Amino acid sequence: MCPYRLVLEHVTSRWGVLVLIELLDRPYRFSELRRAIERVGRISEKMLTQTLQTLERDGLVHRDAKPVIPPRVDYSLTDLGREAAEQVRALALWTQQRIPDVERSRRAYDEARTQSAQAS
Predict the structure, then answer these.
(1) How far apart are CA 52 and CA 22, in angstroms?
(2) Nearest-angstrom CA–CA distance, 49 and 54
(3) What is the pLDDT of residue 85?
(4) Where are the beta strands (DSSP E) in 1-120?
(5) How many other CB atoms are there within 10 angstroms of residue 71's CB atom?
(6) For 77-101, how does the pLDDT look when each residue is reduced to its tens digit (9 = 90+)?
(7) Residue 62 phi/psi, 5° resolution?
(8) Helix (H, G, I), strand (E, B) or coil at 67
(9) How far apart are CA 80 and CA 85, in angstroms?
(10) What is the C-alpha to C-alpha distance for residues 73 and 70, in angstroms, rounded to an integer?
(11) CB count in 10 Å sphere of residue 22
């Protein structure tokens, strides 16, 4: 897979979008981030870990592990990650604002298909 498409897939994945948008507000500890994301959908620890590792590898998320007891790990956006997150958030807001139009289009499409099938 070409690098462009792979990064786009990471940024626009179900969990990638939510992680990026949440981290726009502030840095989070792992458990805080998981709770914040679970307002939208249930995510396993394994999936959140994989998503954070992928975004970290792409240079979008910074992982700051502090050598204290108990261990403390904070996640934040890099400059590159903030730029990507702002773009993703803009798309998410646009989707939220325009969903009534999308739903109208879907109904019109479905009705036209039903009428076409009945006419056949």
Answers:
(1) 12
(2) 9
(3) 98
(4) 28-29, 61-66, 72-77
(5) 8
(6) 999 999 999 999 999 999 999 999 9
(7) -110, 130
(8) coil
(9) 9
(10) 10
(11) 21
